[in-house]
Amino acid sequence: MKLWAIRVPRKMAEDTRKLLLQTGIIHAEARIYRDNEYIIIPVNAKPDLGELAGIPDKNITIIQAEFETKQKKPSLENLLGFTPTFDVVGDIAIIDADDPDAALIASALMEFRKSLKVVLGAAGPVEGEFRTRQFVVLAGEYRTHTVHMEYGCRYKVDLAGAYFSGRLGSERQRVTEKVKPGQCVVDLFAGVGPFSILIGRTVPGASVVAIDKNPAAVELLRENILLNRVDNVRAVEDDARDAAVELEHRADHVIMNLPQSAREFLDSGIRVARDGGMVHFYDITHEDDLYQTSWDLIQGAAARQGRGVECVEKRIVRSYAPHQYNVCIEFQVIGNEQM
Ligand code: SAM
Fold first, then answer.
1. pLDDT 10s digits, 49-78
2. Averaged pLDDT for residues 210-239
3. What integer pLDDT is reported at residue 339 of this predicted model?
4. What is the spatial distance between Cα 113 and Cα 51, in angstroms, rounded to a whole number?
5. Is 217 in the pocket of ligand 1 (CB under 6 A)?
6. Nearest 5 degrees, angle CA 96-CA 101-CA 106?
7. 235 near 224, Cβ under 8 Å?
8. Topology agreement, domain 76-143 and domain 167-338
């Protein structure tokens, strides 16, 4: 393309370019080039001398010249023509296997995100007691396991065998900040350990009991305890209800991160909390009833044990489905003497 341009000796090129950048007259799409001892800088329109204040006149020439167009930096979005939705866990990207563009998105991700080694297609919902899902490998290495980094901890994960989501990192950090040094935490649905291990690693003197019923999750949890060198997290493979019997009135914090069915475990969660202890209860609720039904169930469960509850905080963690939210209600358990 033919454009107005400023020709300056090479030794002045950098200073001139900086001055011109401030005026905003450099043409954004044309490529600056060299011609013997001169640099030719494309500009948007014929410049007047006022715009060139600061550059010694005798050294510059205003000319018209042919320029090549700058190559646009290729990006995932340019290639696809849209912004794809995907999650990342370690070096694995997860997309929807039913997306009609799944194969195209998978190969574009492999090309543009060099840190990714696998693209998995989620071939169904998160389901069942162990909250796992089916995957198909769409691109890259044939595996579902990886190591995920989060807030300075490393987690071995096998997406096909045990639940893990990288989207909850800031939620885990938020809960961790509520735990005080020396406190006892019971993580009733610990999975591969991201709440438990972060607390164990970062809260001085804390002790954590991390329970999960899925043997594959507990195997990874044990490996993650070693990987992160935490000696204050105890892994227990058990049903949360059975484990709760042994841990009655023990915990300063009880984490109930099984949003689809944590309501069924409210009695156990409250049972584990000591008087004054805090329960972090996760639920899936409708936008028309974000907290009330959950709160009624919490109060009912406490009353059955002759205890009371006081709400400390309630919040939306993330949107879950149209009109449905993953919420967290944090409440303190009050003993009958304090009521
Ligand atoms: N807290 C973990 C995290 O943030 O990754 C895992 C959460 S995942 C939503 C819920 C976990 O609860 C799963 O690992 C599942 O195996 C476990 N689980 C389901 N039913 C259980 C039960 N009755 N007792 C103990 N664990 C259970």
1. 666 777 766 678 889 999 998 877 778 888
2. 98
3. 67
4. 42
5. yes
6. 70
7. no
8. no
The finding on whether 267 has its CB within 6 A of some atom of ligand 1 is no
Amino acid identity of residue 122, one-letter, is A
| Residue recorded with tokens 């807030």 | 151
CATH number of 2-66: 3.30.70.2580
Superfamily for 76-143?
A: Met-10+ protein-like domains (3.30.300.110)
Question: What are the percentages of helix, strand and coil residues in the chain, rounded to 5?
Answer: 30, 35, 35
In angstroms, rounded to a whole number, what is the distance separating the alpha carbons of residues 196 and 193?
Answer: 5
Is 336 a residue whose pLDDT tops 80? no
**Nearest to residue 269, comparing CAs of 305, 320, 234?**
305
Contacts with 314 (C-beta within 8 Å, 6 or more apart), sequence order: 290, 291, 295, 327, 328, 329, 330
Return the structure tokens found at 71: 């190559």
Which residue did the predictor score with more confidence, 15 or 322?
322
Q: What is the C-alpha separation between 23 and 199, in angstroms, rounded? A: 53
Q: Strand 184-187 relative to strand 251-256: parallel, antiparallel, unpaired?
A: parallel
Q: Which CATH number fits domain 167-338: 3.40.50.300, 3.40.50.150, 3.40.50.1360, 3.30.470.20?
A: 3.40.50.150
Length of the chain: 339
How far is the centre of ligand 1, averaged over its atoms, from the C-alpha of 211 (Å)?
8
- Answer yes or no: is the C-beta of 159 below 6 A from any ligand 1 atom: no
> Which residue ranges make up each domain of the chain?
2-66, 76-143, 167-338
- Ligand 1 centre to CA of 106 (Å) is 29
Q: For the beta carbon of residue 37, count every other beta carbon within 10 angstroms.
A: 10
Distance CA(210)–CA(174), nearest Å, equals 18
Q: Where are the alpha helices (DSSP H) in the chain?
A: 13-23, 76-80, 102-112, 169-176, 194-202, 215-227, 240-246, 266-272, 292-304
| Coil, helix or strand at residue 314 | strand
Task: Say whether 75 sits in a helix, a strand or coil.
Answer: coil
